[in-house]
């Protein structure tokens, strides 16, 4: 991906790490002109990724990176474009609080590192760049791919995970995240803990019934005498994480499919995100994604 400015001036390393500060290094941070070009690159990559995934709006942009606690790895080819360099692709990750089902169907709460967006320029796909970038991130974060969650992975990403990391057996979820069997294996109790029992009528509501944006905490607390006695641990967990960070991604379809039988689970735009109630708070995604088919 080429740009009308010097990529090597903005990104000095082959792989750059970006967070909400939106600067590849101190040098860029002090140069508003470079920061503006960097933002242009991120926006352009986000648009290209959305197009490749047939999303109606970008999951990644410079402004989103600044406002969300996500991190982005950007891979460049410093040699191309007559030495000015070109951008090869990016990988965006971030922690999210998720309510997941283990292989026995038991609800567990976790806050794993999630793959949120991943894109390699069209003409460079299937050349090993995705693997290079992904491996870089794994090493940087010191995490195993099977310990991560994947936000509505595309068929290409599922194929990628199967090919490079032998991740094939996903554990069906009611939200858009995909986790594999390794996710639950020997996980520390602090990272993964069972949520309180579901109410008998703990139904799953379609995403369209959810409030967008912040869900007011006070709405979730039933009046006396119905207010439950909560352990400090539980009440802490329900309050420390804003609803926006919890487990659902609006524009990606739920993954009830088995990777082995249907690599790719759909990444269509249907809004089947779900809300689980019953002893737990409402949840919504931190990703502002489009919801075609829903007003
Ligand atoms: C949570 C999310 O981010 S989901 C969004 C994932 N991103 C996308 O779908 C955007 C379009 N796709 C891409 O950008 C890239 O294909 C990526 C990021 C998924 C993978 O990057 P690449 O550089 O192509 O991967 P790399 O070359 O290291 O590995 C190739 C393997 O990836 C998978 N893959 C890559 N492209 C394709 C494709 N067109 N069709 C099927 N599988 C593919 C295959 O397993 C492939 O191995 P193969 O060629 O032997 O079949």
From TrEMBL:
GO terms for cellular component: axon; clathrin-coated pit; cytoplasm; focal adhesion; microtubule; spindle. Gene3D superfamilies: 3.40.630.30, 6.20.370.120. The lineage of its organism: Eukaryota, Metazoa, Chordata, Craniata, Vertebrata. The record marks 53 as: Crucial for catalytic activity. Residues 1-184 form the N-acetyltransferase domain. Pfam families: Acetyltransf_16 (PF05301). Residues 214-295 are annotated as: Disordered. Acetyl-CoA binds at residues 118-131, 154-163. Belongs to the acetyltransferase ATAT1 family. It is found in: Cytoplasm; Membrane, Clathrin-coated pit; Cell junction, Focal adhesion; Cell projection, Axon. Keywords: Acyltransferase, Cell junction, Cell projection, Coated pit, Cytoplasm, Cytoskeleton, Membrane, Transferase. InterPro entries: Atat, GNAT_ATAT. Its EC number is 2.3.1.108. One of its GO terms (biological process) is regulation of microtubule cytoskeleton organization. This is Alpha-tubulin N-acetyltransferase 1. It catalyses: L-lysyl-[alpha-tubulin] + acetyl-CoA = N(6)-acetyl-L-lysyl-[alpha-tubulin] + CoA + H(+). Specifically acetylates 'Lys-40' in alpha-tubulin on the lumenal side of microtubules. Promotes microtubule destabilization and accelerates microtubule dynamics; this activity may be independent of acetylation activity. Acetylates alpha-tubulin with a slow enzymatic rate, due to a catalytic site that is not optimized for acetyl transfer. Enters the microtubule through each end and diffuses quickly throughout the lumen of microtubules. PROSITE patterns: GNAT_ATAT. One of its GO terms (molecular function) is tubulin N-acetyltransferase activity. Its main location: cytoplasm. Residues 230-242, 258-273 have a biased composition (Polar residues).
